[in-house]
């Protein structure tokens, strides 16, 4: 939701992300087909999954990192390429989890590694947001990271972001997209500016 704040005027972001979907269930619901029906040559398709692929107890969503997860991701890659668009794999952003010594812990198992390997195999650009976000949480520490997630007096959500967290992660994506040449430097703006959290408005439930 916050990525458009870091892109120059004239670049359009179509956010097709839907809460609770995995790489598999997104396809099964026809959502990839819907994207491929409107995507155009030269467009970018940023693909980020894993959180819900990890739900081993749910056969509708679960994928195995080195087999079905990669197989599903190949559908996005081949579908985008068939339309003349450029697929970009984005490793999952990390949850907020620390050990007793204050070290930020990875929470996605083998999924990021499987995505990295697939990016090499398919020669697809990769934005390694898992590694970048883990490093950011480590630098911020146990208490400061609470201000990026939905932590309130009644809720302790270590997965979903509030507006400051959404902006911080979008900044990571924008910065990494320049480094990896997914976006040209001229296309990315405000990398070193504060973004008002009031710019984010959540869609109705």
TrEMBL record:
InterPro entries: RhgT-like (IPR037459), SGNH_hydro (IPR013830), SGNH_hydro_sf (IPR036514)
Positions of the SGNH hydrolase-type esterase domain: 10-165
UniProt keyword Hydrolase, yes or no: yes
Matches recorded under Pfam families: Lipase_GDSL_2 (PF13472)
Keywords per UniProt: Hydrolase
Gene3D superfamilies in the record: SGNH hydrolase
Family named by the database record: Belongs to the 'GDSL' lipolytic enzyme family.
Protein name in UniProt: Lysophospholipase L1-like esterase
Taxonomic lineage: Bacteria, Bacillati, Actinomycetota, Actinomycetes, Kitasatosporales
């Amino acid at each position: 939701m916050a990525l458009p704040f870091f892109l120059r005027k004239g670049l359009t972001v179509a956010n097709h992300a839907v809460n609770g979907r995995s790489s598999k269930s997104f396809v099964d619901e026809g959502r990839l087909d819907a994207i491929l029906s409107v995507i155009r040559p030269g467009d970018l398709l940023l693909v980020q999954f894993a959180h819900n692929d990890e739900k081993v107890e749910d056969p509708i969503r679960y994928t195995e990192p080195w087999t079905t997860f990669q197989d599903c991701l190949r559908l996005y890659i081949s579908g985008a390429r068939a339309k003349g668009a450029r697929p970009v794999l984005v490793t999952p952003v990390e949850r907020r989890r620390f050990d007793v010594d204050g070290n930020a812990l990875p929470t996605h198992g083998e999924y990021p590694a499987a995505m990295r390997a697939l990016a090499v195999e398919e020669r697809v650009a990769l934005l390694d947001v898992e590694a970048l976000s883990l490093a950011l949480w480590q630098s911020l520490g146990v208490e400061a990271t609470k201000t990026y997630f939905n932590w309130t007096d009644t809720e302790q959500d270590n997965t979903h972001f509030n507006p400051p967290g959404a902006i911080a992660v979008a900044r990571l994506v924008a910065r990494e997209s320049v480094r990896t040449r997914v976006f040209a430097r001229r296309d990315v703006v405000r990398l070193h500016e504060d973004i008002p959290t009031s710019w984010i408005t959540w869609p109705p439930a």
